């Protein structure tokens, strides 16, 4: 009764200059809807801090989960730009994108069972799961993971490159964020055998096919997609020189050293690994680099015209990107993946 008074459950989004429309559920953001439909939309964080997923609102109304002003410049806001990851349509929309709309891999839902959770270092575990059916993904991409009784989904990058085109066995490097609902749940007990929900694949962070030397800068669990990308490059027979800068707090926070050693030993060209510790005790026997990992950029021969891959905490990635641009690296030579904790934004 009175069904004619009910508001529509989905709103239509029209892409200006594109022969395509999209239906968005009333509880979903524009970015969520685009990714679910397999539409490629640049994004780094999904929580409104990086500003990558901006679009121009030409007509219609939205509700913002957090103000776009936190990540966009004033002139962008005045021009009508908003963030797709924070925009929930409240009417039919007409929008414009800065780049042509393209189709990526289809995102799907999977059931996952936790197989093992070995600790890699004091605050990071290797979450290994088995899916109900095979998944295909590109090294560098990520999945959204949910746990029973925990609200929402969390994004984690795939931590290895699949040997075949698809696999049921996945690994993720999960850092414990005190107060974070998902990681508190995961670290609180032995979760082997527990069920998870998984939605994938997402993301445009990937290995580019070129002859340029590779520069990887990672911090914390941002090492996961970097390892995955390098494994793929090795499998493809890459001979490009590699420089891997990895920032950790102390020696105990360094991890995946065996896998990095294997990559270095089997790489078909120069491979330099430079671990950098920011909080190592002054009287420790550590003989390696100290300080913020971004300080090492000044020591690099930027004239080599690297192809850079940056992954880790937003502040680290932002600073590394700014310094590489200042040193003369072209913007399209830099790929970035910012690992943002929800607690850092809300």
TrEMBL record:
Residues 107-208 form the FAD-binding FR-type domain. Its cofactor is [2Fe-2S] cluster. SUPFAM superfamilies: 2Fe-2S ferredoxin-like, Ferredoxin reductase-like, C-terminal NADP-linked domain, Riboflavin synthase domain-like. InterPro entries: 2Fe-2S_ferredoxin-like_sf (IPR036010), 2Fe-2S_ferredoxin-type (IPR001041), 2Fe2S_fd_BS (IPR006058), Beta-grasp_dom_sf (IPR012675), Cbr1-like_FAD-bd_dom (IPR008333), FAD-bd_FR_type (IPR017927), Flavoprot_Pyr_Nucl_cyt_Rdtase (IPR001709), FNR_nucleotide-bd (IPR039261). Residues 11-101 form the 2Fe-2S ferredoxin-type domain. One of its GO terms (molecular function) is 2 iron, 2 sulfur cluster binding. PANTHER family: NADH OXIDOREDUCTASE HCR, PROTEIN RFBI. This is Oxidoreductase. It comes from Sphingobium terrigena.
